Amino acid sequence: MAAITMPPPSSAPLSRKLLLVVDAPSLLHRNHHARAHTRILDRSGRPAWALHGMLRQIIESIDGFAPDAVIFGLDDRTSSKRREEYPDYKAGRAEKDAELVDQLERAGALLDALGLATLTPPGLEADDVNASAATWATANDWNCVIITSDRDAFAQISEHTQVLRLINGGINGSPLLNPSRLFALYGVTPTNYLAYAALRGDASDNLPGVAGIGEKGAEALLAAAGSMAAAWADIDHDGGRNLALAIDDWSADGGGRNMGATVVKRLSAPGARERYDFNVRMMSGYDDLDLGLTPDIPGTPGLLPLDIDRVSRVVGFLNVEATTDLAVRVLTGEPASRTGG
């Protein structure tokens, strides 16, 4: 398979090292549903199609991006700080298939056995690993690419960090989002994406948005105000008059209808600010986790290349010869995109 050609984060020096961050549960969920028809079993006869699909996508990504280190974020499946605060967090989701649960529970051991770095933060989720990895990359002057199908990661986009958002086209057909591409798609900057999400809400996590403010209203509000801090300040000190005018001006520039008074009314409604603040708190990723990355110590988990015997044995256990051959080529030597192959 030809290597994917992936651009570096926009305006980022090519000399920076690259950290690839993988939202493992996100990929496992997608691959479970997309590949269940293959009924791939490992050599012990257990379901392996989600594990195989995730690993295949990551091998292809490593071949294309040529990262210096890779870390996989995993969810703590035994406890949840967010659910402790909000028992209805993620309530309403369909119960997971037993075959998916089995593969979710085995993923960490598989990746650890390969020699890749994994992190299961106590009481937290892969989203928090994404946030901490983006912070780590900035602090260490690395570039970072987060691979996920979850939009929450958009808040981590920066001059250092891009998000490869997996959609139905797989790795090659998925958008690689930097600040300008995010703005083109959603009309918001990365620094405002958390506010946008908090206003809109997230049905998948059972977090209602501010009543009456959907995606269009959130986009208009943030574009006109610049930030929610400025919006709340105008509501507090001037009843939102300047905010309403600014929203109407923004709407008029785009040929839209006036909505300023309506948006201000929605924001001023009882409980609106409390709902917004609660969503921000629930949606914010913990960005101070210790990733355990030691890039100055060769051979430590997460650094490439990997040991050929481990790769042959571990990937071979998934029982797909073509993937084992690809893994040996990509994970145990220089990725093709780095060598020009």
Would you mind describing this structure in some detail?
It is elongated and about 70 Å long. It has 15 helices and eight strands. It has two domains: 18-185 and 286-339, Rossmann fold (3-Layer(aba) Sandwich), CATH 3.40.50; 190-283, DNA polymerase, domain 1. The model is unreliable at 1-12 (pLDDT under 50). Helices cover 48% and strands 9% of the residues. Helix 1 crosses helix 2. It has 341 residues and is α/β, with parallel strands linked by helices. The N and C termini lie close together (11 Å). It has helices at residues 24-35, 49-65, 81-85, 98-114, 126-139, 179-186, 190-200, 215-225, 228-238, 241-253, 260-268, 272-283, 308-316, 321-331, 336-339; strands at 18-23, 69-73, 117-119, 143-148, 161-165, 176-177, 201-202, 207-208. The chain has a six-stranded mixed beta sheet, with helices on both faces. The protein has a two-stranded antiparallel sheet with strand order 7-8. A hairpin with a 4-residue loop joins strand 7 and strand 8 (207-208).
**Level-2 CATH architecture of the largest domain:** 3-Layer(aba) Sandwich
Number of strands: 8
Count of distinct structural domains: 2
Gap between N and C termini: 11 Å
Name the overall outline: elongated
Sheet-strand content, in percent, reads 5-15%
Helix content estimate: 40-55%
- Total helical elements: 15
The assigned structural class equals alpha/beta
The succession of helices and strands, N to C, reads: EHHEHHEHEEEHHEEHHHHHHHH
> Using only CA atoms, what is the Rg?
22 Å
